[in-house]
Specification:
alpha/beta; 10-stranded mixed β-sheet; about 25% helix
């Protein structure tokens, strides 16, 4: 169902997948603790269950709940968030294994996009991945996102995304796992 962000904020999204624009590419997400909806994300993408999802947050305080070592997260988050940097940090027990594929870590990000932040601040943190079939290019245009209308529960009306996928940085190993627009000094 194609829906405005205002209308979506009046809905119960438990069990639902949501397609929305971020500051990088279009994403598909669900409440981070909603196993049924997260399984739908994996099915929609044809994604291997051994590949973790990231958790997008509307604030640094939200993100801090998911890491067992805020000293690893906070300095880089304060410098680069909101923005296109996913930080892989040690997780807390509130991260369900179906989100991070059972790893001891979780990727956290706060996007720099008004629409995404409105959703995240209204509903809370969400498990999110890029909108595409696995191993295919990310979706950057609203028009292409509409191709998932029969697979996602909601597609939020939005503009075209302007970036490429976020930089993913493993804070513990001090290693870039995927290079995006953000270059770490």
């Amino acid at each position: 169902m194609i829906i405005s962000v205002e209308a979506l904020c009046k809905k119960d999204i438990k069990g639902k997948t949501i397609v929305f624009k971020t500051d990088t590419v279009y994403g598909i997400g669900a409440l981070y603790n909603d196993e049924k909806a997260i399984k739908k994300i994996y099915m929609t993408k044809g994604r291997d269950a051994n590949k973790p999802l990231a958790i997008l947050c509307g604030s640094l305080d939200d993100a801090l709940r998911f890491t067992s070592d805020e000293t690893l997260l906070k300095p880089l988050a304060l410098k680069y968030w909101p923005g296109a940097l996913t930080l892989v940090v040690p997780k807390t027990d509130i991260v369900p294994p179906y989100v991070n594929a059972g790893f001891d870590t979780i990727g956290l990000r706060m996007p720099n996009d008004t629409l995404a932040l409105k959703l995240l601040n209204h509903f809370g943190p969400m498990a999110v991945t890029s909108l595409n079939r696995s191993n295919e290019p990310e979706i950057k245009t609203y028009q292409n996102a509409l191709e998932f209308n029969d697979k996602a529960d909601y597609i939020v009306v939005g503009d075209d995304a302007e970036g490429k996928a976020s930089t993913v940085y493993d804070v513990m190993q001090k290693r870039i796992l995927r290079q995006g627009d953000i270059k770490l000094d």
